[in-house]
Amino acid sequence: MNGILLIPFKSLATAKQRLAAALDQQQRSQLAAAMLRDVMTAAAGVTDRVDVALVTGDAGARQMAEEFGFLVIEDTRDESETAAIEMATAWCEQRGYDTTIVVPADIPLITNDELQRVLDAAPDEGAVFVPAYDRRGSNCILRRPASIIPLHFGNDSFLPHCAAMKRTGKDLTILELPGIGLDVDNPHELDLLVQRHGETNAQRLLRSWGFGSARYRRLGGSGVTRRPQLTAAIATAELRAIPVRGIRDVFAGDSVADLVVDALALGGLRLHEGDILVIKHKIVSKAEDRRVALDSVKPSAVARNFAAANRADARVVELALREAKRVVRKKHVLITETQHGLVCANSGVDVSNVDGGKTAVLLPVDPDRSAAQIHRQLKKRTGLHLPVIIADSFGRPWREGLCEVALGVAGMKVIHDYRGKVDPYGYKMHATEEAVADELACVAGLVCGKDSRIPACIIRGYPYRRGGGSARQLVRPAEKDLFR
Questions:
Q1: Integer Cα distance of 123 and 119 in angstroms
Q2: Mind listing the pLDDT tens digit for each residue in 421-476?
Q3: What pLDDT digit, counting tens, does each position of 59-88 carry?
Q4: In a domain? residue 460
Q5: Could you write out the DSSP letters of every residue in 285-348?
Q6: What is the extent of the structural domain holding 441?
Q7: C-alpha–C-alpha distance, residues 7 and 75, integer Å
Q8: How far is it, in rounded angstroms, from Cα 281 to Cα 361?
């Protein structure tokens, strides 16, 4: 292999603007220099296999490269990282390099062993990709030949790069490497960097500023160590409901977590620490194969009689009776209590937004368990703690119209208990318990709609409380039911 490892770097003076909420300009420059040194240190361990070049127009970065004995490819245009790599690739091909490896300058946990693995995986013709931890960015790309595909860097470059390689028909290897996987662009990633085991230059620098300290944790996380006034801003931050568009039709066995993350990436969005994911139950039910072909249902006499009297589909009534623990009311609408303890119409059996009325969708068998599984998969995929709410629309006995309710919950407390607290006027509250999971489901319902083909929503800005909450905690026990 006649290869070269390229490290693009723009400017120490203007580095890491997205960290401005956590670090001042001098700190951002110091952190950028520390991360660049970490990357160069790892790269120095593979100089027996490939050349190494820094692509930059910054004098301080150039001096650091010269200390390591690396080549410097002058980036005189001072444009985007994509433009810099395009220029550098042409420079490499003119000098006979058949392989390029591009590694950003902001992945301080990179190790020599990981770079060796990338080089070991190099195909005769093709590429090796190492995605970012959230599988949005491309944190290392080996190309052989050097320009087999053009590179376009940004927040969501990984999937487009994969698509470009697929079109070539050549070999593509994807390596999941934890050190290379963490690039540092936002305050949350500062947290991840400090929490990871190791003693890189960047980690030592951050810890010298108090990141990771007990005081830092008490003040509430990224950006608060140096700027305590941000703590008050958190309490008054706006609440946002962001639709997850582009989720394809769901089939049995699909991973709902992967569908959501991939759809966000294709739409140029990403999940952040503090986000809450609300998912309409129907895509969860489809993924869990909770569909029943109506032609296969043989209605009982009870179902046929009710359907005839109320202009209903006897097959849907039969499924509702099968799913019910008890029948609450059989007048005009069949109201049942499901096995989950939910009181709703037709046991939640639904034929809308499926396939035009040929198939009915049932509620998940255990929505809390479903939410917990999606919560775990999101954690594995993104590295983030993301509460999950599975929601459905229910009617209400004394109000017209439908509202969303939380069927399943994972990763957060579902009730905010105000009992024993004093309100702003000095009154001690005795009975106030706020069903926050249901309220968040309703916020998402406004975005998802009934005919918009948007089955999921991100709630951003709500200061939820972590905990092992479940939707079952929202079901009032029979002994406390005032109307039973």
A1: 9
A2: 776 667 888 778 899 999 999 999 999 877 778 999 999 988 888 888 899 999 98
A3: 999 999 999 999 999 997 767 888 899 999
A4: yes
A5: HHHTT-EEEGGG----HHHHHHHHHHT--HHHHHHHHHHEEEEEEEESEEEEEETTS-EEEGGG
A6: 240-288+364-480
A7: 12
A8: 10
